[in-house]
Automatic annotation (TrEMBL):
Residues 134-201 form the Connexin cysteine-rich domain. Residues 42-75 form the Connexin N-terminal domain. One of its GO terms (molecular function) is gap junction channel activity. One of its GO terms (biological process) is cell-cell signaling. The keyword Transcription regulation does not apply. It comes from the Eukaryota. It comes from Spizaetus tyrannus (black hawk-eagle). A connexon is composed of a hexamer of connexins. GO terms for cellular component: connexin complex. The keyword Protein biosynthesis does not apply. This is Gap junction protein. The chain crosses the membrane at residues 21-39, 77-97, 118-143, 178-203.
Amino acid sequence: MSWGFLRDLLSGVNKYSIGIGRIWVAVVFIFRLLVYIVAAENIWKYEHDEFECNIKQPGCENVCFDHFFPVSHISLWALQLIMVSTPSLLVVFHVAYREKREKHHNQKLYKSPGDIDGGLLCTYLISLILKMGLEIVFLVLFYKLYNGFKVPRLVKCDIRPCPNTVDCFISKPTEKMIFLYFLVATSCLCIVLNLSELSYLIFKYSIKCYLKRYIKKCQ
């Protein structure tokens, strides 16, 4: 899979973000995307082939693996990376709309199309809320699918066509669990950054509106 489009998206969003937003972009790009491409993919690359049960009954290993890993950790992580980055497209599209509108009217309609104000501020706030919501949804999904943020060494399976309860062993459980904890930590960090940015923008806009009303009242 090519991750070039996600890199380009993050680069485009970085131009219109404030300081906290740029930190978020750096965390996603360095601590999530690069770690995924460089290390995580290799760890889970052969997880099905390395999943072994102490019985050779045809089909037993397959159904047990599907039961304990309904969705691969690495696939879910990739989907999470894509989904939490997608709301940023709203900001990019809004800026492109402003630029097209200025070109259509052939005049300067905005101080700068990329300034976070007016309608673009609302779009930016919505994108932050969506990113936080998606991060939380995926954390809950991880927790529900795998019964917590852990990777056991041994799982017991009694699903047909297994003739009885069999022991199945997961490869490299400690290494996988470390990366899973890293995933959770970076997701939580991104939630904190998004929440901080949301609070900062709302506070800044509230102060700006209050000062405008105060100056108008004084005049």
